[in-house]
Structure formats: structure tokens, C-alpha cells
Amino acid sequence: MKMDVVGKFGRVLLPLITVFKEDQSVDYATTRKVARFVVDKGYCDSVIVSGTTGEFYVMSKEERIKLFEEIKNELGDSVPLIAGTGAAFVGETVELTRAAERLGYDAAMVVIPYYCHPEQEGIYQHFKKVAESTSLPIMIYNIPLFAGVNISPDTVARLAEIDNIVAVKDEAGLHPLQTTAFIKKTEGQLAVYSGDDTMVLQVLTQGGVGVVSGGAHVVGDIIKEMIDDFLSGRNEDATKKFHTLMDVYSAFYGVDGKRTNPTPLVKAAFEMISNLPTSLPRLPLTPVTGEEKELLKAALKHVGKL
């Protein structure tokens, strides 16, 4: 492996929620409090700012850079900070990545260009240009569910030849064996993180190193314990914790799994355990319903969070 990714960033990376006010403007002050809460609780090893759970896709470039600045000012060097700098346009991605580097971030997470359904060569050229624009370590963020295209293991292998591309976050639920393909194709040069809370144990068994977890906002301590159990050979204990966590993960997708994007429910669950006003998403996402709130409360009580 090119660098000790786990030693630097750990195994549980938390994509921080972004708080919005009733008028839909960004509530930077409360978002700072969220960051402080999850770090003080020990729910994560690193914090990712402006990721999918942070609703980056409905934020302007200026809002994202302001958020980078606010969270850096709040957390300083207390935990590694990773900037979500991905955008469909490579020029905007470069600008965001350079801003993160200027502000003292430790790495950038760059999502596959979305909506336009690029060919693999286009994906390669996108990441190559971003990597060449910065000295920051870069994590490839593969999320075909939302981006509309999957990065192939062959493309990842080509990108692994670039010195500062060091890790992959993969939506493992859609391609459950892709971790193995990534590791084999790159000869173990890239650290692979599960981008799906429900797949962390399955990714670890294939040689992955951890998880980028929105659910860590409320159950990060249990996720850490589960990973420790697995890595220490206590597989039965890890499985029991996983089964418990699945009750929470299922609740994040609403009644009968009707939600495609779990972010509003993650935000509502965090509000319940922290008493911070965090539950309002930015449109087009909609707030949780009364029925969904009851589902969340039951799940959180089941894991001892309420």
C-alpha cells in the first residue's frame, strides 16, 4: 500500500451532515456543533465534510468551501479531515480540492462524475486531472446508485498508478465482490472502504479496511466495536452487533424501505440523540414523517441510544 491509510484515517470515516435552517440556508454554527459532538463521542476516526450525507449536491461551490473552513476552524487537527470535493465538472472539482488543500485538509474524496454517464476513459481522465492539481491524498468515491455509472476494476488499476490516489470508497451493496476485484487488480495498493453501512463486514472479509458511515452519527461507537471484534477474531460477537445495527440501518430507509436516500432519517435520528436542530434536509429531499419518526425512535431504543 502506498501510504498507511488506516494509520492516518482509521477505519470509521464519518460523512458529516450539513444543517439547514428553516429558510434553507446553511446553518454553519450548528453544523460545527454536530462535528464537535461526533468527535467528542468518539464515533469516528476521521470526518468527511461535504459528502453525500452532507448533501453536497444541493450546495453551491461557495457554500462548500465555507463549510470546509468552518469545520476546520472547529476541529483543527483533533481528527483527520477529508474534504468531499467531487463535482460533475472537473474544473469545479479541481477548484474545491485546491481550496481544501489551502485550508489544511488531510485528503480529498472525489465522487465519480455524475449524471452524464461518462465512459471509463472519461472517468480516468477526470481523476487524473484532479490528482495532478493537488498534493492531497485522494479517495475515489464510487457510488453507481447515484452517479449512474460504476468505475471498473481496470480503471481503478490505472488510477492506482498515480501516486496520490490512495483509497476507494465503494458502494458495496450493488457490487458485493468488487472489493476483491479492486484489491486484486491494484495488487493491494489502494485501501478499500465500504460506502455502504450494511456491507462493512462483507468488505472486511475481502481485505477492505473499514467503512464510510452515515450511520456513525448515532451508532459509531457500536460500529467501531463490531470492527474491532471482527479483526480480533471474535466473529460471533461481530455478527451479533451487525444484526443489532441492521435494525437501525433498516429504519434509515423509512417505512417498508420506501426511501432511496437515507439522509433525512439519519439527520432526524441524530437530532433525537443530540437535541441539536439537525433534521431539516434541503430540497428536493423532504423531512421525515411522523410514522418514520416512530420507526427511528424504536430502533434507537433497541440499541440503547434513547
Overall description:
This protein has 306 residues and is an alpha/beta fold. It has a single domain (5-220), classed as Alpha-Beta Barrel (TIM Barrel). It has helices spanning 5-9, 28-40, 61-75, 90-102, 120-132, 144-147, 153-159, 178-186, 200-205, 216-231, 235-251, 263-274, 290-302; strands at residues 12-15, 46-49, 81-84, 107-111, 138-142, 165-170, 191-194, 210-212. The chain contains 13 helices and 8 strands.
Strand order of the largest sheet: 1-2-3-4-5-6-7-8
State the total count of DSSP E strands: 8
First-residue to last-residue Cα separation: 41 Å
What is the fourth-level CATH superfamily?
A: Aldolase class I
Fill in the CATH topology: TIM Barrel
Q: What fraction, in percent, of the residue positions are helical?
A: 40-55%
Mean pLDDT, to the nearest integer, reads 97
Low-confidence stretches: none
Number of helices: 13
- Classify the beta-strand content into a percent band: 5-15%
CATH architecture: Alpha-Beta Barrel
Domain count: 1
Which descriptors would you attach to this protein?
306 residues, alpha/beta, TIM Barrel, eight-stranded parallel beta barrel, 13 helices, 8 strands
Task: Furnish the topology, listing elements before pairings.
Elements: H1 5-9, E1 12-15, H2 28-40, E2 46-49, H3 61-75, E3 81-84, H4 90-102, E4 107-111, H5 120-132, E5 138-142, H6 144-147, H7 153-159, E6 165-170, H8 178-186, E7 191-194, H9 200-205, E8 210-212, H10 216-231, H11 235-251, H12 263-274, H13 290-302
Parallel strand pairs: 1-2, 1-8, 2-3, 3-4, 4-5, 5-6, 6-7, 7-8
Helix pairs in contact: 2-3, 3-4, 4-5, 5-7, 7-8, 10-11, 11-13, 12-13
